[in-house]
Amino acid sequence: MNPLAVRLGPLELRNPILTASGTFGYGLEFTDFVDLSKLGGLCTKGLSLEPHAGNAPPRICETPAGMLNAIGLQNVGVEAFLAEKLPKLRALGATVIANVWGDLEEDYVTVVEALEEAEGLAAVELNISCPNVSRGGMLFGNSPTLTASLVAKVRAATRRPLIVKLSPNAPDLVLSARAARDAGADVLSLINTVVGMAIDPETAKPRISFGTGGLSGPAIKPIAVRMVYQVARALPGVPLMGIGGIARLEDVLEFLAAGASAVQVGTASFRDPGVSGRLVEELATYCIARGATAASLVGRAHAGGRPAAEAGAEG
Amino acid sequence: MRSDHRARHLRTERYALGLFSATFRAPDLASGILPGQFVMLDVPERIRPYLRRAYSVADARPESGEVEFLVKTVGPGTRALEELPEGSEAALLGPLGNSFSVAGLSAGARVAVVAGGIGAAPFPLLYRALGRAGIAADLFLGGRGEKDLAFRRRFDGLVTGETVLATDDGSLGEKGFVTEVFRGRARQTRYTRVYACGPMPMFRALAGVTRELAIEAEFSTEAEMGCGFGACLGCVIPGVEKPFLVSCSEGPILAPEKIAW
Fold first, then answer.
1. What does pTM read for this prediction?
2. CATH annotation of B100-220
3. B153 to chain A nearest CA, in Å?
4. C or N: which end of chain B has fewer Cβ atoms within 10 Å?
């Protein structure tokens, strides 16, 4: 038995370490640094119906313990993804989760329909939380009503496991999470980036051409841990993927303890492209040393906190 | 193959205030890197700066395993490198990006290197390749004043042609923009190709000159990079045939006619 295997509703993964959309390209950029077949999964760059050019530069800016970005969802489009990227990912043995976004509900549905017959996709992740486009994106995530409507329409269009990626910028995260779950989401992933801003003190202009950007990196980890904990508390039994500033084994364990059944490594892959693969190895070593399974490490903080060895003895 | 090389910092040599050379021991990188390629350098055990920084490799010596960077201190990233103690370790992710092409030049061809300020950084290694190929390359080195040209002595013995210095204030060499000085020479000397690196205004002016005189050109571009290997799409430059060129993975060496100036 594989001690790292985790199950998130209908989604079975070989381990709980994935890579986050927007921080891992199409996976193929990382093959010199990570054996993709060793990861729990990889979430692609957000795919839209048509190729999308993204925002004008400058698009990124370093901040204390992280970065702001407003890439604007530049991507090759779903057709090119299916023709050029997915076959290579399959050949490499990657567990691929297609991240999907659109301006309108119909756009999401059309992309998901285009993906439906493709072989080699483990799940679909809906991005309803991107802060860097003028339409769609975060607008869906900020309203539980819009979230519910969109998720229900996509749910009807796919038999695949459906992940909905939530926004930390939503007025009430638990309401959004409940809306997504009730509309048919199998898994919730959280959090996307936190809207932020940086201004050049000399020119008094925003450092990013879009004005605002999404903050990521270790700077947002405590926010993300709190939100995972909060949703896990409010919606027990809903499988969660934790995202936000994960770079070390301690971060993985923290998110699992908060109630995530799996995690997505994000911005850390820019700075250290091999980090996700190493975290899989480190988690394996950790679990073997304690006789624990990864699944037994999930939600320990809600049980009042227990040592991993004790949790492992039950698992 | 690209990998994250652990490298020992051997020495820092200062050329002027805020202009220095940092040399590391990284044998695999030293034997694998091509002129114009770069690395993403990580000074370990730090929270800020958070991201790595991109540095063109200035020179590489396979025989000693040394890799050298020419650096101008502009912010916290470059300052961390300037202050890195000798003997400490850094991580060099590379080699990244495409390279200057030396192929396709016939022996006896005359080419030019045009560098503005810290834009001199990638050229010692290119000069080694040009020297091996027996190609005469004139060096045009420009800056606002004499201090910006402090790296000129790094090219002693390397330049396979004439060296032309230019400063905006006339404190060293010819007075005026290096692009104008180059233009004057290029009307007399037929250059087959020009290799260039410098700030955006220099590139823009030089693109006009190379277009006017129909000289093939290779520009070493740089936009602020998040990852350095095409994943974050942060370092884009407006393109002609498509909306954006990704500086790190489609470049950093780009032909000026591909860029929307």
1. 0.95
2. 3.40.50.80
3. 34
4. N
